[in-house]
Amino acid sequence: MNGADAAWSLNPRLEADTHPVARWPLCDVRLMEDARYVWLILVPRIADAVEIVDLPADVQQQLTVEVARASAALRAVASPHKLNVGALGNVVRQLHVHVVARFEGDAAWPGPVWGHGTAEPYTAAARSARLQALRAACAAD
Question: Which residues form a coiled coil (predicted)?
Answer without folding.
Answer: none
